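Collaboration report, partner site 2.

Our partner group contributed sequences for two proteins of shared interest, and the home lab folded both. The records are reproduced in the order in which they were received, starting with the first partner submission.
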Amino acid sequence: MAAGALPALVVAVAAPSLWTAAAAWIVLTLGLMLADALLAPSPRRLTLAAIAPGVIGMGRPERARLTAAFEGAGPRQIEFAIGLNPRLSAQPDRQTVRMHGLRAEAELTLSPVRRGEGRIEGVWARWRGPLGLMWLQRRGPPERPVMVTPDVAGVKEQALRLFARDAPLGAKPLLDRGEGTDFHALKEFQTGMDLGDIDWKTSAKHSRLVGREYRTERNHHVLLAIDSGRLMSAPAAGLPRIDRAINAALLLAFVSLRMGDRVGLFAFDSKPRLASGLASGPVAFPLLQKLATAIDYSTEETNFTLGLTALAGRLDRRALVVVFTDFADTTSAELMIENVARLMRTHVVLFVVFRDEELEALTTKQPVEPDDVSRAVIAERLLKQREAVTARLRRLGAQIVDAPADTLSTALLNGYLDVKRRGML
């Protein structure tokens, strides 16, 4: 229609009596568009579907598939688009594929953004008529929800590697004998045994060296306390810190339950948000997983006094308290230290913080502009404040796990096994 505008103007100027040619051109164009729409495959003959997993773990993208099937004739190619709620993202969210017969398929990657109920709010498909003048489009119905949960599959993979005989990482938690302080039996002394384990009276009686064998202590209380405040929603290596903490906590829970300990979950920000009872046995892991999924993101400041006081009130015997948190200023760190010190009078505290790789990168970055120097100085000061806080906690007797986000789970598990090996509980 636009292409005929200039010739119609020339005709109207040169031969005003032929002005009807312009109107005829418009009618012809509209007729061609109508014919294109009628000749194109009808949207009513199209079936659209999205095949996606029902559950996706944070940090673990999954593949999804879009399908389109026509009844009768189909176009040469079709364009897909997908709409998602803010808890999911798709790559690519729009793509064009060729038809194979009467069917077309497109694959995409669904990436979780936040835990909760993700939704595929709609699937769209559109195609051109045979003349290429008209687009026809159809929207498919919303699909079933996609639950975004902690990365349980990754937790189980890590746990299985650690429990394997040839586990390459960390200490092996399958050693029922030879670790801990729970006496198991007497055995003939062998090279490599600790000299302090020799039972001298029994050795003198039998005229040969006899050593004491120990087994791993069980039925300890392990409480996982997760700070869900504002700072824990900040990203660390591509995922919110709270999701990193939940993944590490679930791995520790899985191993602790396998080793015979009793595990509980506690979450707090400005006030306690979640408090579970202590559970035992591997069958309790799905319950802890479900509770961890319910820990929401928060914009409120963390109240360490209220949170840790409520936590201490729930403990009726000596326990290992694993605190996942982060801090940004010395004022909040001072309140945190005060309440952690009160908790350590009775319990063993394993304090888990994220190494701030962003600040470390700023201190080592080659300065190009004057602002780079200012950023490096401020970053260095913040790192020294963090080091001072962790040093104070160590002097008070807390066990510190300070590791990059990617290796936090392994470092935490090794810290837990070290506490058990040293008999601190």
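Second partner submission, folded after the first:
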Amino acid sequence: MTKRILIVTEYFYPEEFKINEIADSWLKKGYIIDVLTQQPTYPLGKIFSGYSNKWFVKESYFGINIYRVKAVTGYRESLFRKLLKYFTFMILGSVISLKIGRKYDYIFGFDVGPLTGMVPAVLLKKFYNKKVTLWVQDVWPDSVYAYGFKKNKVLEFLLNWFVRFVYKNTSNIAVSGKGFIDRIRPYFDADKKIAYLPNWADELNKDLTDFRFSREQKIHFTFAGNIGTVQNLDKVIKAFAALPRQYQEKAQLNLVGDGSYVPILRDWVAENKLENVIFWGRQPRDEMYRYFNASDFLIVSLINKPIFSLTVPAKVQTYIAAKKPILAVISGDAADLVKDNKLGFAVEPDDINAITTAFKQCIDADKQLLAQFSQNCEQLTDITFNKERIINSLLNLLTT
């Protein structure tokens, strides 16, 4: 008898997340795959064209049944609406999961955002004794405090209770960062397994026309992805602006992406007349290799908060797959990954002078060193961040 898997995730196709590839892979292996999610809104906070923000709708996507619930929009501009979005999925998703959940053999939770999104999954273990596996991309309660919520006794008590409730009703957990294990273990039963299964690189379409950031021959630094407050790009830009003139003339900083912090950064760049810091806007995901390939260094950056020292942003694996040297303006696991595997340079995110020095190191690096960085990236992609191996390991964790 064919086994049925329910995937619980706040994000699914046409939104671009790795859960899409997981669902497709497991479907091809012979499982019946259903997805419980919400109407697509990420990253712009608006309902995608062709979709209607109804309270509930069932649709099909290449043999996958998708159950969608209403999504709150406009959350990019409002913290209240962002919180409302999370709680709306938790409540509506829980109602639907309890209604349809009995027929599934396994429940897989893709925990890419707030832990509230996993409640519809863990309720199926609590009420129907289903096997539930979570793939954790973010750690609570640490993330709540990292995003600005002040820690007090009441909030701490409520968050700790909630986190324990979710993890108590989970069969096992996969984590995308090794540092997550120690943070999760106190909330999780000692006899249950926590497996390290990192993100893999995005598929890179290399059959694209070449792209050039500038007509002049320069060292191009590129940041790609969401541009918000936690990406620390204000310090990155200020450090770049502090380069001596002879270095400024050799380099260009490219920001490819969109986000809530772009207007503030644009204004600062304009006020300081930085002609070699360029905003390219959000670009199609399947065209990103053009921008990676045109770069000399790819930048990953996060503010200096304890939770982010445990995080290896998913873009790092994609940078590695692009075989480009990395400038890591970050602390913790991501910095260690770059340093230990000799993939580029790493620097603490709070020290603007140190970031400026790192830019100089990159600009001064010889071709032999850059070639070694690229070769190390290729080896790491083939061994540690192998997509097929990771997806198969997630399936094994879920079903055995």
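Feedback sent to the partner group on the second submission included the following. The chain has two domains: 4-200+386-399, 219-383. DSSP finds 15 helices and 14 strands in the chain.
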